[in-house]
Specification:
Blueprint (H helix, E strand, L loop, with lengths): L1 H7 L4 E4 L6 H12 L3 E5 L5 H6 E5 L5 E5 L1 H8 L2 E5 L7 H10 L1 E3 L5 E3 L5 E6 L13 H4 L3 E4 L6 H13 L16 H13 L12 E3 L6
Parallel strand pairs: 1-8, 1-9, 2-5, 2-10, 5-8
Antiparallel strand pairs: 3-4, 6-7
Helix pairs in contact: 2-7, 7-8
């Protein structure tokens, strides 16, 4: 699969697919197989851009503090970052610099250098479906390996994708040894539960998938 080739070659990935096609589910399971943290932000929310880039927020005592965005947390830790609805906000200024030079500057003028294991994924719906939404700039889009995701109806195909990813882990730069895979039946049961829920992912203590929300006084 093209997405596996992109990951092995350390290329950023642009995932395109219809709403509820399983774009987020796919990246989540790849991250779980890789045993890496996955930060997620949806730019369609009112606080999405602030979650991503950070900003000043008020704590419970009323004191204003600078809160680091998820982009910088993922860069620092070597985690994966999935930006959903990526065409709803202008990202070129930050992403182009990150991909071209390997660093980005936050609102406090701190320089963040990308960890070797950092990976970034953008997810968008096809522009033809939502013509009112912004188009990603050609300059930004050309920096990504673009992958079309069909609706995840074949659970065996997704399980096979995960197995293929596991088999190719030795070729990934900086990859660590994985634990032995669970039985296919158990894995497909978990996948089926997510698909039935409409791929809505929630934070759980045992999951490597992290969703952060804005906090205020």
């Amino acid at each position: 699969f093209l997405i596996l080739k992109a990951l092995i070659q350390n290329e950023p990935v642009l995932v395109v697919g219809n709403p509820a096609s399983g774009k987020t589910t796919l990246i989540r399971y790849l991250a779980r197989k890789r045993e890496t943290n996955l930060y997620y932000v949806n730019l369609s929310s009112d606080t999405g851009l602030e979650e991503l880039l950070g900003g000043y927020t008020q704590d419970k005592s009323g004191k204003w503090q600078y809160r680091k965005g998820l982009l910088f947390s993922a860069i620092e830790e070597g985690s994966w970052l999935l930006i959903d609805e990526a065409n709803l906000s202008p990202l070129s200024e930050y992403i182009n610099s990150l991909l071209d030079f390997g660093y980005v500057i936050d609102g406090e003028e701190n320089i963040w250098y990308a960890h070797p294991n950092f990976r970034i994924f953008l997810a968008i719906n096809p522009p033809a479906i939502h013509q009112s939404r912004n188009l990603l700039s050609p300059a930004l889009r050309s920096r990504f390996t673009e992958v079309w995701v069909e609706e995840l109806t074949n659970l065996g195909e997704l399980a096979g994708l995960i197995d293929t990813w596991g088999a190719s882990r030795g070729a990934v730069s900086g990859a660590q040894d994985h634990r032995k895979s669970k039985k296919r039946k158990g894995r497909e049961k978990v996948i089926q539960e997510d698909v039935k829920k409409g791929k809505k992912l929630e934070q759980t203590p045992s999951s490597s998938f992290k969703r952060f929300t804005h906090f205020s006084a």
